[in-house]
Amino acid sequence: MEASPDGILMVDRAGHIVMVNAAMEAISGYASEELCGQSVGIFLPPAARDAHARQLEAYFRSPSGRPMGRGQDFRIMRKDGSLTAVAIALGHTDVSGGTAVAFVRDISDVRGLEARIRFQATHDTLTGLANRWQFGLELEQAIAVSERTGQSFALLLLDLDDFKAINDGYGHAAGERLLLEASRRLQSALRAGDTVARLGGDEFTVVLPAIAQPQDVEQVAAKLLGVLCQPYRMHGFDLAFSASLGIAVYPRDARDATTLLRYADMAMYHAKNSGRASYAFYAHHMGWRMEEKLQLREQLKIALDSDGLELHYQPQVNVATAEVESVEALLRWTHPQLGEIPPSRFIPVAEATGMILALGAWVIDRACRQIAAWTEAGLPLRVAVNLSTQQLRQVDLVEQIERSLARHGARPDLLEIEVTESEAMADPEQARQVLWRLQRLGISITLDDFGTGYSSLAYLKHLPVSRIKIDRDFLRPLLRSPEDAALVRAIVVLAQTLGLRVVAEGVESTEQLSLLVRYGCDAYQGWLFSKAVAAHQIAGLLRSAPPDDALPPTHIDAANETWARRIPSEVQLSK
Ligand SMILES: Nc1nc2c(ncn2[C@@H]2O[C@@H]3COP(=O)(O)O[C@H]4[C@@H](O)[C@H](n5cnc6c(=O)[nH]c(N)nc65)O[C@@H]4COP(=O)(O)O[C@H]3[C@H]2O)c(=O)[nH]1
Hints:
Radius of gyration: 36 Å
Number of strands: 22
Bound molecules: ligand C2E
GO molecular function, one term: cyclic-guanylate-specific phosphodiesterase activity
Mean pLDDT: 84
Largest sheet: 8 strands, mixed, barrel
CATH class of the largest domain: Alpha Beta
Strand order of the largest sheet: 13-14-16-17-18-19-20-21
CATH topology of the largest domain: TIM Barrel
Shape: elongated
Structural class: alpha/beta
Organism: Paracidovorax wautersii
Number of domains: 3
């Protein structure tokens, strides 16, 4: 008995301890002499003693054995007052004399481990918040409670703005610190009955039970954004920290968990789309458009992962030499069922859903690969790539571009970055810094869609821009309206005084080209010369514009004639 690893405890009919072994002493913390003669109730909290005494009586009336692990888990009170989990097997040595024997096994380690495993399965290891699985249960439970009580509850879905950029730019550890901070701030702003979970990545949910009116939810939403949108100090400087929040209300919007979550998701994207750091309630009218967008996002993700996207290249022709001096890379997506989907449809979706960063990185990488391939083939052609505002804000954009250049061995001076005026103006100081860093790498910068934004001359002078592109909206009515013609002329003069080259975009007719040549435009791009074509077609287009055919820029008639001859018939669309 003394050698048994389990505690052994003998109790008489009256419930007095008759004998304990060494293992029982270790489990309970009592010495044998402190226990013998005592009521077995010593191992129980006072409140449980009477009930146990009744159970013991019943046991002695009809004693029966019980193997280890079959009964309920039990917690005994140790000498120091702490409770420890044990499993108990029961037997009897002498029914007539009435001595029961209990084998007591300390299972506190096992229970602790089980509790840990249970916690890990239901909680997010980083933040300790409920995880997606647990959140699903809690949401179902909230629905069940609200069904019974007839009360509404709100489901809030939150997504940190620009989290990916921070994670990519500062590394995983920084991303994790940010997530921990977000979870800490969320918890500090919520009440005891509210539940918060981390669904994964930078997505959090909050369930606000028993809401009386929508204003209550608005207040909480504003409070959460208030605490989240405080800067976070990392690596010695303040990091802008913000989130977008979507709200769906039970039962007003939906009665089942899946739909509620989908609606909160739609509302969240709506909030992100309308300026970030804001919240939006789900509304029916946003439904179908968001539905379509979400589907498009999914399809786009598949296309990106499965090589379903392509870059086409549209030549930019030097007016003075008639040479193709560069090409603009333009994304093309041909969906297996839906056919060709224009960038004007999918780029805004990519921007609204944050996918533009992955998409933009892919474009840069492909463009670098193409630059290297052309250079190796003896065709060192400059490639212009469009950049979206979110990419400009991406903290590691410059490093990302450097990596792509290095990966493919592409010359930086053959890469050109096009940013629109409004993108550069979204955060002028930040844009200025990023563009200067790019320029220092040897990359040239073009300001796209010039004339549509609101750049000030003073600001333009501070950007390392070497070219501006006149928006094609100005070219369309060029021949009809003297005002537009005057504006184009003014833009060219302005650019020239700043020492910038001017590229006209969307040139469709020789008449437009004639005017642009007269105004002093340096280069043009448009269907007149060629649409965007696959990379392998570019060499053919280059051959169609031999450099020794250069035309004098002021000789308009000659220019028209020469250009008309050079337009490849298969791509010529209109004059
Ligand atoms: N009517 C007319 N159109 C002409 C003519 N010449 C060129 N275009 C079109 O004008 C657009 C020029 O590109 P953008 O202003 O940068 O405008 C682009 C750009 O803002 C965006 N985009 C395309 N590819 C990318 C990309 O890789 N990244 C990003 N961020 N945006 C892209 O989508 C916009 C539309 O792209 P696309 O549909 O390829 O449309 C292209 C091009 O096909 C012409 O003579 N007449």
